[in-house]
Amino acid sequence: MSQRKGAAMAAVTSSKHEEEAMELRRGPWTLEEDNLLMNYIACHGEGRWNLLARCSGLKRTGKSCRLRWLNYLKPDIKRGNLTPEEQLLILELHSKWGNRWSRIAQHLPGRTDNEIKNYWRTRVQKQARQLRVDANSAVFRDAVRCYWMPRLLEKMAATSSAQAHHGELPLPPPPPLLPSSHIPGMAASSPSPVHGGSQPHDATSSAPAGSGGYGYPVDPSPPSTSTSGSASTPAALPPVPCFSSELSWVDQYGPYASYADLGGAFDDPAALAGSLGLDGLDLGPADDCDAVYSDSTLLDYLNSTCAGGGTMMAAVGGGSGHANSCGGGAAMVGSVYASPPWRATDELYYQAAAWKLGDHHQWGGGI
DNA sequence: AAATCCGACAACCGCATCGGA
DNA sequence: TTCCGATGCGGTTGTCGGATT
């Protein structure tokens, strides 16, 4: 091929591409386009998106058609706000897999990876920003696990009881749950500091390095005696329920048994919460609970529940030094089930208090 | 009432992976 | 084995509507 001919062909190709680019539509889809796409898929089925784009009369790329169908037009797409159950599931699965949105979406029927991703970015990361911590930091993961998730459980319980109150069908019982002491690495008497305990991760299940997951670095140090002793635990602090992202019944039902897989467990959140050792805990008034994941922020909640900076700073300044962060999922669960007063998120309390009092050096750095 | 800000969500882009020729 | 098109995935941007100033 001569250079001239090649140049000519290149010019033709270039102008052709420009022409195609000129013709291709972008931006929001119109009703007509939606109808065209739905009709075509009704006749020919999904897939072969480039062919679809060419043959359907749509001036869109195959990619665009696929995305529009999967994220918006597909009949089983569930619209509306994420339920507390779904939010809890997202938090749980993100702790397991990190930003594997499509994988997470597979466990939320009717929800798309895009929707879940947006939820994470707009809601969850917002909380992290307001706390001035990284969303993947241990402190924030503690906050999610120890505050947000229990409140979602509370919300589920409230919803459940409201439904029961309105005479709806009785809920099926939750599946039998093993006591934590029966779960390897979660025995109440063994506050093992080993990261992740004996969780049945498969080769692909661990969150990508640096991309989150609520896994904790190995922290061989036992809970600080200065904070684990009941005498030094600030009485003003409310009970802090903690549970591992690797919940016992997840282990029990297999490595990827999810909330959704458990079905009935979600339908009776009160029982579920009880099974997690969260019942009977003072989680605060219901509206407070609502505020955590809707109207207000996690920081608001921390501010409201931290019963006073003075108390907390006294705890910090009173010889406890630096409170431990969660020393590992198993250890943390152990701390809940075995009920030593040491609590994984004490540091968060202290840092929130420090922040309130203007000591930004105590805080984990801005983002 | 107008301007600005902000949150939510739809859509796009670049890259990776897969499968068939 | 290599190439190439199709598809999937995750990050990012654009747009819109409601809230706030």
Please give a structural write-up.
The structure is a single chain. The protein is mainly α. The protein has a domain of 216 residues. The protein contains 18 helices and no strands. It is elongated, with a radius of gyration of 25 Å. The protein starts with a helix and ends in an 11-residue tail after the last helix. The N terminus and C terminus are likely disordered. It binds a DNA duplex (21 and 21 nucleotides) through helix 3, helix 4, helix 6 and helix 7.
The overall pLDDT average reads 52
| End-to-end CA span | 55 Å
Provide the helix percentage: 40-55%
Estimate what percentage of residues fall within beta strands: under 5%
Write the layout of secondary structure elements.
Layout: H1 3-23, H2 31-44, H3 49-55, H4 62-73, H5 84-97, H6 101-105, H7 113-131, H8 138-165, H9 225-228, H10 248-252, H11 259-262, H12 264-267, H13 269-275, H14 286-293, H15 298-305, H16 309-320, H17 329-337, H18 346-356
The protein binds a DNA duplex (21 and 21 nucleotides) through residues 26-29, 47-51, 61-64, 66-68, 71-72, 99-103, 113-115, 117-119, 121-123, 126.
Key phrases:
disordered C terminus, elongated, 367 residues, DNA-binding, mainly alpha
